[in-house]
Amino acid sequence: MNLIVHHWDTDGITSAALLVRALKLEEFTNMTAPIGEFRFDERIWGAIEKAERLYVLDFNVPNEVEKVRVPTLFIDHHTQPRIKNPLVEQVNPSLEGEYWPANSLVVSEHFGIWNAWSALGVVGDIGEKAFGLERVRELLGKGGISREEALRLVELIDSNYIAVDREAVEEAVGVLLSHPLKELLEYEPWVKKAEAIRDAIEGAVSNAGERNGFAIVHFESPFNIISKVARKLVWELGYRGAVVVNGNFHGKAQVYFRISGKEAERINMTEVIERVRALGTNAGGKREVLGCVCERDKIEDVLAIIEEYLR
Length: 311
Ligand SMILES: [Mn+2]
Hints:
Layout: E1 2-6, H1 10-23, E2 28-31, H2 42-50, E3 53-57, H3 62-67, E4 72-75, E5 88-91, H4 103-111, H5 116-126, H6 134-142, H7 147-162, H8 166-178, H9 181-184, H10 188-206, E6 209-211, E7 214-219, H11 226-236, E8 241-249, E9 252-259, H12 269-277, E10 282-285, E11 289-294, H13 299-307
Parallel strand pairs: 1-2, 1-3, 3-4, 4-5, 7-8
Antiparallel strand pairs: 6-7, 8-9, 9-11, 10-11
């Protein structure tokens, strides 16, 4: 049995479809990890035990790949260490110091198979910037897909993982393989999901309160939309920053704090992240963002820290 383990986003899904097409695989199983978790869970390890050959695509889990005991092709574009496991063939241009914007391109280059899926992976990973690449424009053009359609297809494909629907992510590979791309613009299960996600984002954004030019929003949703809500508030609506709380994300709380580039000169986000983490939460981020998952009863403590910076 051929087993494909891929990232849950459009780049991972198109990478898997490209691989199946390139190798003309008749029998295969494709799986993704629990959404949001960069590891192989029991279910994946169980499948690996039964597999004759494993493919890992666009999924940056070098530590897991070191442990596999079956011949494996590991194709990725994320920065990662060289794999020492002799059963693993690692294809990753980053090992030679090259930046490739999407894994779909690495798969296409490796097997010499190029089509609109190759381009969609790029649109998925880097958004509008993808259209600045000649190759992407050419592949979409040949496939009769406009820029707007490409962006919409990514929204539809990504709606599966944003809805935290692992099964639907896995089904998406088969859906791609069995439908012309144009038809997928009307693919009902994805259209409905994308609509529900858009509504949830709009709903959250329109409920935003304000303090000192910072947006503050509380909502509850099973969709993983917190970063999109914050981006909209800061990048599109021009707030100095946004504090966004999803008070019930599959039983946990998500807190997200995004600030504008200008505010990042004043607010030391590394310090905020450290303080929030010291509460015993799972917090991370960079210069302009803090993201945190915690128990619901910790929300007030996290907010108390963030509020000190909203001056
Ligand atoms: Mn990728």
